[in-house]
């Protein structure tokens, strides 16, 4: 079947651009200077590419470059337009950041004030045959936000810029993990579209499934723009193909009307499933728009065409009152899905740099961590089509926030009209994607209104509730209607119930990081955890690339700039010292904080999964970073995985055995001295898991003290709790014993004492060493074969310290005495490194190295760090 071809002509306008400072504190040497510009792009990256500014991501350069966001900028290009391409001509901008004036050949075409929507301007009367000049002037995003805040009236927010007064990505003004680098520029595609008679203004394929009947249902809504004076009948043709299905349907657009809906049914449809639950079949959809003759038959070639893909599935959100409160369960194809997810932020502060390849790399990492959902957070952007396409292909569910985060928002004009236009644009654009399963009105805004002191500060002003409970759900119902909607996250299900009640709906948990400690994650059993996390530094290679402090310390100037959380370093310290002593050596500090981040989040996720189905999901904050920074991310700003990513891979495994405190009857632990230990067997597969759970209490030298074997049968997508016999679950010597629970080679561990209080053998007290390690070359890299001489906790090979682009397949591996593991290290084909570096004690790390560190003076520490770092670097680059 030949694809539908359209008469519409498209000319991409991405070439020949320049940018110049047009107002504000532009340095004298740049005033009036034309700089080559990349479109899509932004001012910061253009100036950086021209060598006119330092890299904003390095050291304290952020402060040096704040003038960019305080200045006005003008983009300019010329293009040629030939005759005969159509009767009507539109300039189409997929993204302008943000307050812009567009002129063509000296005449104003339009003004914009919203980064989050697309714009189209009729330039038929302005376009010249031959050369045309296009200019886009951007007002300072910082000064515009300030001015609009005054015009709208003060509303509370969590930043040092009033980002809530302007429809621009909130994170772009800085966040507690983000750089303050407010951008301007043409950040998505721009083109000239020429057409005649009529064009497709919007195409919304809404695909659902009648699972019981095995049918796919496609309702494809089309909105048409007619040329002035054209009122005749039109016809819409829809073709669907793939997986043995070939379907064509047509619908008339009667004279004078501008919309139509085409219905298609697909019997024996191939259902689209989340990863881990089935396959992700996608169907091709083609739409053509044609004129008709007097009989109503299509006449001539298509006037316009659209093509895309979709998948058939049903989706719902169960929020049902029960004995524990109110559930929060995402249901796909009538099956509850236990969500193993992460929050997603823009992958670069300069988001135009994020291409499909970079998105694919990040989603590779999400899959490596066994994730099945990403929540697109409301302080960022509505992601590029490539993001959702890739999620469709991989079965990664997407939860889409509307762009509201941690702030009160004016509901008056002109903001209200912008919000509605933005919502309509993005709901229509994202409708085809089967991976999209939830619309969410805002991030923390209803919770914030109740608990962050907003009510007093607002003094009666609007704050956004009407958006979340009226406008946005209305747009979703009108333009989508196939997906659930929640007004905010967290959300208890009702404005009458506290929005962050753990017993009702979704919850955000930040008391642990801010004030308590990570073992207390086990104190609460939420119905769904939509945000929680623990900070850790970026990988060593990223840290030392972006910060040149000498000496480098946790509090050195560059480190402070790259720590955006309020009191962040103090919270890192407070959250560590209950578990291991605070190291004096910088590399040990880096490893300790990386370990603590991974352990904290792994503890939380295993706890949450152990309470399935009462708890139905875990969405960690966050998968990725937008620049090099100490943050909650599992993947740092240079795209390198932290130990946390590997901890998540374990905690998200389809089959998990975890040891958890429980009451003697298997219920919630009382923490009054009468708690028991339980092995919880979690089975997130379609097959039952049955066998004998082997329970053992061991000394640290591997000697058995007590054991038991308990048969277990775990149904598909279920969990079973086995309370340990007292003799297995009660230590004789807490500091020197552990418990293991093993089923079919899957093992859970429980240590009775904190590492700092335990009898772990340390390198200084190990005699011949903690491990034996051998390295052998293999295709694509090396295998590091490690055998434990003593109990070794959380063995981790920090491969990036051997080579910045090296990766290892597993981290945080605990070995009993005599156990062995093979760690596979991949390196680029052109990488040169001495294999011995892979077993260096500052590369091959373990928790044992941290439990009783030697006390050294600051001078000695600096000397040791300098010597070993130089040694590793020399070996890696030899």
Question: Describe it for me?
Answer:
- The protein is α+β, with helices and mostly antiparallel strands and 878 residues long.
- It folds into five domains: 9-194, Jelly Rolls (Sandwich), CATH 2.60.120; 197-310, Immunoglobulin-like; 329-639, TIM Barrel (Alpha-Beta Barrel), CATH 3.20.20.80; 655-757, Immunoglobulin-like (Sandwich), CATH 2.60.40; 764-877, Immunoglobulin-like, CATH 2.60.40.10.
- The chain contains 17 helices and 46 strands.
- The strands form 13 sheets. It has a six-stranded antiparallel β-sheet with strand order 3-2-4-10-7-8, with helices on one face.
- A hairpin with a 2-residue loop joins strand 21 and strand 22 (325-326).
- The chain is globular and about 90 Å long.
- Its EC number is 3.2.1.25.
- It catalyses: Hydrolysis of terminal, non-reducing beta-D-mannose residues in beta-D-mannosides.
- Residues 34-188 form the Beta-mannosidase-like galactose-binding domain.
- This is beta-mannosidase.
- It is an enzyme of class 3 (hydrolase).
**Strands ordered across the widest β-sheet:** 3-2-4-10-7-8
How far from one another are the termini? 58 Å
Number of domains: 5
CATH architecture of the largest domain: Alpha-Beta Barrel
CATH homologous superfamily label of the largest domain? Glycosidases
At the fold tier of CATH, the topology name of the largest domain is TIM Barrel
Return residue spans where pLDDT drops below 50 for at least 5 consecutive residues: 854-878
Rg for CA atoms = 29 Å
The main sheet comes to: 6 strands, antiparallel
Number of helices: 17
What's the total count of β strands?
46
Determine the structural class based on helices, strands and strand pairing.
alpha+beta
Percentage of residues in DSSP E strands: 25-35%
Shape: globular
Helix content: 10-25%
CATH class of the largest domain: Alpha Beta
Keywords: Glycosidase, Hydrolase
Pfam family, one: Glyco_hydro_2_N2
Organism: Isoptericola luteus
EC number: 3.2.1.25
